[in-house]
Structures are given as C-alpha cells and as structure tokens.
Design goal:
The complex is a heterodimer of chains A (about 280) and B (about 290). By secondary structure, chain A is an alpha/beta fold. Chain A is built from 9 helices and 12 strands. Chain A has a 6-stranded mixed β-sheet with strand order 8-9-10-3-11-12, sandwiched between helices. A 4-stranded antiparallel β-sheet of chain A has the order 2-1-4-5, covered by helices on one side. In chain A, strands 6-7 form a two-stranded antiparallel sheet. The N terminus of chain A is likely disordered. In chain B, helix 4 packs across helix 6 and helix 5 packs across helix 6. The chains are: A alpha/beta (about 280), B mainly alpha (about 290).
Amino acid sequence: MTAPTRPDLHTPHDLLDAIGGVPVPSGDVVVQATDVHKWFGRLHVLKGVELTVKRQEVVVLIGPSGSGKTTFLRCINHLERIQQGRIFVNGHLIGYRDVDGRLVEDKERSIARQRSQIGMVFQRFNLFPHLTALQNVTEAPIQVRGEDAERAREVGVTLLERVGLGAKVDAYPAQLSGGQQQRVAIARALAMKPALILFDEPTSALDPEMIGEVLDVMRELAREGMTMIVVSHEMGFAREVADRVVMMDEGIILEEGTPEELFAGGRHERTQAFLSKIL
Amino acid sequence: MRLRTRLAPRLAGFVVLAALLGGCAPSSYPYRWNIFVDSIFRPDALILSGLALTVSISVISQLIGVALGIFGAVGRLSRLRPIRWLATFYVWFFRGTPLLVQIMLIFFGLGVTRIYGWPDFAIGPIPVSGAVQAGIVALGLNEGAYMTEIVRAGILAIDPGQMEAAKALGMTYGKAMRRIVLPQAARVIVPPLGNEFNNMLKTTSLLVVISVPELFVIFSRKNASGSTVFHPLELFLAAAVWYLLLTTAWSIVQYFIERRLGRGVAGAAMAGPSLRERLAGFRLGSSSTGGR
C-alpha cells in the first residue's frame, strides 16, 4: 500500500480548516487490528480480522450483509466488545488493558476518552432530536472536551456552513431532510477533532436524491486528508475516493486492494460474485 | 377566554345537582347551603391552611417521587445485579402494599420503636409537624415506586441509537443519560407524571389516618364539631370542589408543560389532547379524531 497523495488539499470550502487542520496523530498508523474475534453468544461473527489503516487513508469496507463489516467497525470504537485480538488506534489499545496477555475491559472513563477521538457517523444519523443542529454539533465539545461554549459555537457554525447548512443552524433534526441530518451528523463528528471517522453505511437510509449531497461532504473530507473507514455499498464512491477497498465475508477479510484491483474482479470467486450483484 | 367559559358551567352543574338532590329527597335534613358557598367563596383560615398543606405536601412528595423514580429506573436498568435487585425490591414493596399501611408503618411503626420518632421542627417561620414529615416521606416513597416504572418505560422508549451516538462522542453512561436520554424520556414521562400528580393531590387525603391537617381533615373536623357540625353534604361537596379546582388548575399547567416539551418533535404539540379535551377528560366527537 502506498501512502496516499493528495495534491488538491486546498479547496474553497475547507472542512478540516474549521477545526484547525488535519488532526495529527502520533504515528503513521491510525488503526491496527490484529486477529480480532467476536462472538454474539455462540455465533462467531468476527474470525480473526486483520486491518491496518494509515494516516489520511480512506478505506471502504464492502461485503454481503452478515459478513461482519458493521460489527467490526463498531469494535473500533468499542461499541462492541471483542473476545480475542487487539485493536489499536493511534497506538492505544482500544477498550481493554492487556493483563498478561488477557483482555481486561478498561474503565468507563478511559473508554469514553478513547471514543472522543474517534468520530462515528451512523446509518440512521442518530442526531439528538431535542437539540438544534448547532447544539448537536457543540454538545460533545462543550460537555466532553470542556470547551468554552462561545468558541464551540463559533466552530459549530463554521462547520455547519461548510457542510452547506449555514441556514439550518437553529433547526431541529425533525425539520431537516435525511441528507441534511446526515451532514449535521458529520459536522457533529468533526467538531470533536477526531483522528479518524468511522462511517457505518452513511447513505443507506437516504432517499436516492440525497445520497449525493452526503457523498460530496465525505469526498471533500477525504480530499482534505481525514482518515476514514467507510462501510458502504456505494461502489462509485469507493472507486473514486477509496485508497483501499476491503472485502469482508463470513467474518474474515477475504481480500483487499486498490479499487482498480478489486473492481477489476478480485482474486476470489466470492468477491466476483458479490461485485457482480451490486455493480 | 375559553377557560372561564369552561369552568363556569361545571361549577353551575354542581349546584344544580346538589339542588336536585335536595329538592327530590323527602327528608327533613336542614340544608345550609351557605356552608357550601362560604367554604368555597369565603374560605376561612382553616380551609386556606388545609389547602396550602395539601398543595405543599403534594408538590414535595411528587418531587421526592420523581427523584426516587429516576434513581429507581436507572437502578432497574443497571448492569450491576445488586443494584437491580435493590430497585426491584423497592418497587415490589411499595407498589405491592396499601399506601395506608405504609403511612401507618412509617409514622407509628418507626415512632413507637424509637427507630425514628418524627420530632417536630420548623423551617424558618414554618412549623413542620412530625406527622407532616412522615406523610411526605410515605407519599414520596410510594410515589417513587410508581415513578420508577414510568421513568423506566420512558428511558426504554428512547432509541438505543441515542445512547450509542452519545457514547461514540465520548460521553460516559451517566453523562449520556443526563444530557441525551433523560431529556428525551421526559417527553414520554410527563403525561403519566401529570396523572400521578393529579392522583397525588387527592391521595394526600389518606394522611387523615395520621391527622395531618390537610384539606380533607379540615372538612372532616368541620363536620365533627363547631358551627358546621354534621353538614356532610354541604361540607364534602365543598371539599370536592376544592379538589376539582386543584386538579383542574394542574391540568392547565400540564398542558403548557407538554406543549413546551414537544419542541423539536414534528407534530408533537398537535398529537396530545387539546386543553379542552384535557379538561373534559375525554375527546369529543369525530371532530377531534381526524386530521389534527
């Protein structure tokens, strides 16, 4: 994998500019997952997932439903527990302490602190319906990071403007379309200055005419150098934006490669079968 | 003003009903309707103090109930088994035994055994008798059990995605609960909470068993002695009117609280019963069922 190059970092509507540029993690590797196993009861859903994501890389996870891609994504910020393996984000073991090789779940506060550095965008937006768009964006910076409310509001307004919602600052989620809600959700994740953003099928719950506006924002983020892991069925987006496409099936990573490599057919029959169905 | 026009016929209805009762019944009961009228339009200091006590006890007990309910609900949903057991036992006990028994246990039961003697005290210039304290504690504990279930249902009604989104942003469980889940649950909780408080206003009358001089006890005493002795029809009709005034005033307050909590939810303000429906206690005709 070559380190991604981004010749066009400066665009008229810099998103990361609003939060003070690309958050710089310590190393070059943002996510490192080794031998990740997860069981739901007796169901073995992740069977030794290995993945390394470098700084400023955009990785798109694809695969049939039930292949474990969403579950794996949720393990990265410890919304799901794992039973075996290690996930490191910026060099920190996520969710656990390593006690003589055993995983012992971390204290709630340390988990919360780790999560605050990992953005997440959900399929169903999960905006806070009792808060305005701006309050959705400023809630965590004020409550979690302890930022000054006035400063958080300034950043929040700027972020909402940059995702094209400058006029909707005081709107409640119920007054926004799906596409607008998802853009607020992206601004909300960005406001925490995350080192990484996880996207869990961010366009699957959207009407077709709204998918474009959300992908535009994500495309822009990618161009500006945000590290992103995206579970998506948007193959056009993957082809255009992804540095790497990772094909998951039955709880393992079947293969990975550049979009060109994979969409040319991939090595595995299953990849070919899957791609032939959705392309 | 709709309120005035709505209340007037109801009060009038009472008088008519009473008059009909009086006119039809072949008895020699010496009606003294001035007792009824005076008790309402020229209440003496006793009635006013009883009223004040009823309202104060209701408000404080309900506040205790809500606080206990929030803790109880979080306890019942806790991951820690002993806390879950404790909360479940609390609800089981206080919902499963008569409030009268609880009042007697808490006031006399704790009193005679010297576990807690309920000494009188004063908050500033306001004396608070031991019986009043015990009454508030009993009503609050009892209410807390019911509120636990109401709050729990409210929390469970909130999409788990809300807790997840809050956690993903780095909030702890407690912070996510306080800032994200409970404020949303409040909208679900407030309608039944309103009913609970309506009940509370009336249930305070059970404190008669420990002689707390609230509204009902005042009217009972008026019926038992003094210039108004043995005029139960006039006296208790007046008591009924006072309770109705309290509960009606509350339902108006509740309407505005619910309307305010509906912010941010499309159609929420429209979905609840209108003020008129709330005061009548039911929805009228087809006009209120369709297209609103």
